[in-house]
Amino acid sequence: MQAQLVFYADNELLEGPIFDYGNSLLYFVSIFDGLVYCYEPSTKKILSVKLDSPVSNIYIKDKKNVLAASKNGFYEINFNTLQAKFTFQIEIDDNARFNDGIEDAVGRLLIGTMGYPEIIPNLGKVFSFYKGQYKIIIENTDISNGLAFSKDNSLLYFIDTPSKKVAKYSYDMNSGDVKFEDYIIEFKENGSPDGMCRDGDGNLWIAEWGGACLSLWNPSSGKKLKVLDLPCPNVTSCTFDDKGGLYVTTAKSDNQDNNFGGGLFYFENSNF
């Protein structure tokens, strides 16, 4: 299956795609440019708002209104007015920035951190923010990356990229606490796991940094089920749209085969 190039603006590192199913809008970020993008597939129109520090991920509020996490704080962005308003901050180390995040079923905002501008072993954490309060739920990570919930929300899957593994945690929806259970997937080839999303069957689509693909895994068996190839090595994350297709973000690389790395790609739904 061929990946379609949807958007390319010579960005270094696109990340954090998330689809607003109620309004058929896609959001994603360019981390180091501090740019938050809103893309409307029906019109191909794309809007952007620039923040003043690296931006990592997005939480949807309502139509063309999102919350974006940046190193300098969480900002509410209105794409109708193209205005950003500071909302709150989670205090992190000066030599860290935020990375991947996800919202749980009751509205908690989960978000990981990593060293910045250099990766620092064991500096990363995963925070949970709810009703104005935050706490640490996972510690001592290198690059806190992909987060996904099981279909019944009882499990949290988590990627610390350099480990080349996907961890499984039990998740208490009442308290927001987690408990490590096991490593369920291990990457043994060139690619390292980055961002991910879950499909309707409960399987995990995982972006492979250095692997030039998305790979599909069964979290119960730990087996790889399928691969979708991309034309650039560094694949960062993915999300489903309302037609069952997959949007995929990528990053630049020094590889000579880096065709449109830093672009946004799309796989049409053909049952993959």
From TrEMBL:
Keyword Ubl conjugation: no
InterPro entries attached to this UniProt entry: 6-blade_b-propeller_TolB-like (IPR011042), SGL (IPR013658), SMP-30 (IPR005511)
Protein's name according to its UniProt entry: SMP-30/gluconolactonase/LRE family protein
EC number: 3.1.1.99
Molecular functions (GO terms): hydrolase activity
Family according to the record: Belongs to the SMP-30/CGR1 family.
Pfam families referenced in this protein's UniProt entry, alphabetically: SGL
UniProt KW keywords: Hydrolase
Tagged with keyword Hydrolase: yes
Domain SMP-30/Gluconolactonase/LRE-like region: 15-251
